[in-house]
Amino acid sequence: MDVKMKGIVRVVPYDSEWKNEFLKIEAMIVDCAGDLIIGVEHVGSTAVEGLASKPIIDIDVVINSYDVFPAVKERLSKIGFEHEGNLGVEGREAFKRTFIDDLMPYHLYVCPKDGKGYLEHIVFRDYLRNHPEAVKAYGELKMRLAEQFRTDITAYVNAKHEFVQSILRNVNKK
Hints:
Layout: H1 17-33, E1 39-43, E2 57-63, H2 69-78, E3 81-85, E4 93-97, E5 106-112, H3 116-129, H4 132-148, H5 153-173
């Protein structure tokens, strides 16, 4: 990430190139640990066509269980990823890249297939993909909040929380 942008909340219109960027990152992960994982999912706002987003791809590397996590962690470390722990989200292990590549910024998480963080990512993403009215409302909210909290990423994330939770509650009722 460009150091000058750190701490600046920047939400931009959807870019179809995000799909291609995800595919490049996915190929790198599969090449590294494909035999240990059960999937690589493009999650977060960049995974939803038409949704305004921070231009950072969120990726969940899905494992069958935590039994395989040490081996996945070791493989990722060999190609330059540092484990950061769960960063306060149960069932999701964050990794940061310690190298420079030619890919757009991304967040990489390793998640068990039944982990809460992973399941919520998938439910939220899939709901948005199937509800254009929610995409429009969420995109408008994100643009507004990015202006309001331009230099406070924590406040921006907290302000989006209720929208996300309302969708998760709605889906879980069904």
